[in-house]
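Researcher: For the annotation table, I need structure tokens for Alpha/beta hydrolase. Please keep the output clean. Sequence:
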Amino acid sequence: MTREFSRSTDTCLILGQGAHRVLCLNGWFGHAGDWGPWTDSLDTKAFTYAFMDYRGYGRRRGSGGDYSMAEIAADALAAADELGWEDFSLIGHSMGGMAVQQVLAEAPERVRALVGVCPVPASGVPFDEAGWGLFSSAAQDAGARRAIIDLTTGNRLTGTWLDAMVQSSLAHSDREAFAAYLEAWARTSLAERIQGLDLPVLVIAGEHDPALGMDTCRATWLQHYPQATLQCMDNAGHYPMNETPVALASAIEAFLREH
């Protein structure tokens, strides 16, 4: 991340000093300190963004834990309490899309708006045998991590970028945590718990994301949240914060300003 954070807590990195507070939960390959060049385009006068590290990720490597969605949500709410945030909006990328919904299920009265970026739905993600074999091998196999990132961005980005993403993931996540979080986001179901919750929801799907693209989001997120807005991010796969950062920041903040 090129932009400097305003401050930090034990679990969060903070950017901005605006009145609208936003808690951001990253994807399986990410961590709090790296949301790509997207952060360079955020309005830090209108918004305050908090980026939380999961247990076993980023500055919390070696922390241990059960690495579940429930644990992430409990940590997120504790982080918001530590920051003095009574209410806040949520942004979740990929695995973080499942995690923000767990936060919503635990404390719906505190959530102003929900944004899912190429997000895992509340029902989890089904895998065929080959797909599960690839994803489950990624904890130990750097080549599998690279193949997954390449696949989910449409096999269209440079090897240099793919290699950098893999190295960042390896350097900022414990293998034990990485393996366990796959089970958590793929095989957890929160669908019953979030049914009927009425709040502003924006879902952003990458044009070139074959796994969590427009069709998948329409069949899951828009069924769970009929009031949601679904937007396609052109020229992006599963990582629009890296691929189309300015467009992503513009879309998210335009939505959040309305709420």
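Researcher: And a one-line annotation?
Model: The chain is about 40% helix and 15% strand.
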